[in-house]
Amino acid sequence: MTLSRRDFVSGIALGALAAPGAAATAAPAVEAKQRMRAASAPVIVSAGNGFAYLERAYELLHGGADTLEAAIAVVSGPEDDPNDDSVGLGGLPNEEGVVELDASCMHGPSRRAGSVGGVRNIRNVSRLARDVMLHSGHVMLVGEGAERFAVARGFSRENLLTEASRKTWLLWKESHSDWWGPGLADPAWRDRLHGRHQASAQVEVVQRLQALAQDLGIAPQQQMAAIRKVLFPPTGTIHCSTLAASGEMSGITTTSGLAWKLPGRLGDTPIIGAGCYTDPDVGSAGATGSGEENIKVAGAHTIVENMRRGMAPLEAGMDALKRIVRNYGGDMERLKYIDMTYYVLRKDGAYAGVSLWTGYEPGHPHTIAVHDGAPRLEKTVSLYEGASQEWPPLVVPDKVHL
Ligand code: ASP
User: Fold this and answer.
1) In this prediction, what percent of the chain has a pLDDT beyond 90?
2) Average pLDDT of 333-354?
3) DSSP assignment of 77-123, as one string?
4) Residue of 46, 115, 268 to test ligand 1 pocket, by largest number of atoms within 8 Å of CB
5) pTM as predicted
6) What is the average pLDDT score of the chain?
């Protein structure tokens, strides 16, 4: 175990050097135990879609790689995967059919941060966020300026809209729905429920969309998945927090944001303190889910601050979820439309995955991917049992013309 100067003044060494006396040594002993655990093995936590990339990141950490580089090794997996339509290449586009990506990172060892929002044509925005941190005097770049910075740094411009995502977007565009108000937090939110109909009508909607999907050339085996994305605009993102054997930590979050969003919309992902926050003295946290709700509770920062005040990772994450509940006065009618998952990693290697609801749909629970020597997927602990529903809610479209 190595001792830094900060450790020395903050207690471990003072405890070790203090004259024997129960009161003087008790607290430092606990801290020393936690640090020894951190010194024994790296720990990585990520959203479930990072599972396939944990092993390579763990090996990097084991070999002494930087904690942010290891986190990027996880999140760039889904960014490069055209079949993951929640991140990077192949991400579902905004309402105009343009893919706009967001990312933010915090590098614990240097206590620096970087972020990009609404970036077009650049696939690996996680690396771009890191480059903003490393190669500019800023923390956050957005839109065209971020794209130009990327090109100057040697990133290639490319079309991020895959054929599959373009066709799903067309299906949405030609059928219905939009993100123009009122939103869930608007007193007039119930207006969005007008026109909702019975299950029989919903079957009819699906049949009409199926015919439209056929017309657009969407392969039969992909039609139901595309229809689902049109009727229930998906969220999807990846966060990863890493802890090295040295005790160093970093965090990163990257996303294509909410499907069919208004151009220029930023969610929580690029907001340092909402989508991602790392304080190497305490821990790291990140979020996936309803970005608008997470921004209002500064979720990742709230969780890290909760741990600083002594809460365990699970309790710290649950408290952030309860703040979202508080913002709606506990109104379950609206909370059922909110989906939120937090991934929490404390400096001593303790971790938790928490979500507002068990999953998006029955049988598909939210998961946290963990590697602390063995990679695994664990179900998150949810505040409420059951599946969240998508916002905007299913409204029988009256604009479908076949
Ligand atoms: N939080 C992301 C956003 O609001 C979406 C997601 O996590 O699925 O942009």
Assistant:
1) 61
2) 96
3) HHHH-TT-TTSSTT----TTS---EEEEEEETTTTEEEEEEEE-S-S
4) 268
5) 0.82
6) 85
Q: Spell 306-315 as b/e; 16+ CB within 10 A means b.
A: bbeeebebbe
Contact between 189 and 183 (Cβ < 8 Å) = yes
Q: How far is the CA of 276 from the centre of ligand 1 (A)?
A: 12
Kindly report the CATH class assigned to 30-100+234-387.
alpha beta
Q: What is the pLDDT of residues 295-304, one digit of tens each?
A: 999 999 999 9
**113-116: which pairs have CB atoms within 8 A and are 24 or more residues apart?**
113/139, 113/272, 114/139, 114/140, 115/139, 115/140, 115/141, 115/270, 115/271, 115/272, 116/140, 116/141, 116/142, 116/146, 116/270
Count Cβ atoms within 10 A of the Cβ of residue 190 and give its class: 0-12 exposed, 13-18 middle, 19 or more buried.
Answer: exposed
**Which one is predicted more confidently, 84 or 14?**
84
Q: What is the pLDDT of residue 402?
A: 31
The amino acid occupying position 190 is R
Locate 117 and state its tokens.
């929002």
Domain ranges, ordered by start, for the chain: 30-100+234-387
What does the radius of gyration of the chain's CA atoms come to, in whole angstroms? 22
Q: Which residues line ligand 1 (CB under 6 A)?
A: 235-237, 255, 257-258, 267-269, 288-289, 291
pLDDT bin (cut points 50, 70, 90) of residue 318 is very high
> Ligand 1 centre from 273 Cα, in Å?
14
pLDDT digits (tens, 9 = 90+) for 159-216: 999 888 888 888 888 776 567 667 888 888 877 776 544 555 667 778 888 888 888 8
Q: Which residue has the higher pLDDT, 226 or 99?
A: 99
For atom 9 of ligand 1, which residue has the closest CA?
257
Residue type, 50: G
How would DSSP label each residue in 347-390? TTS-EEEEEEEEEEETTEE-EEEEESSSEEEEEPEEEEEEE---
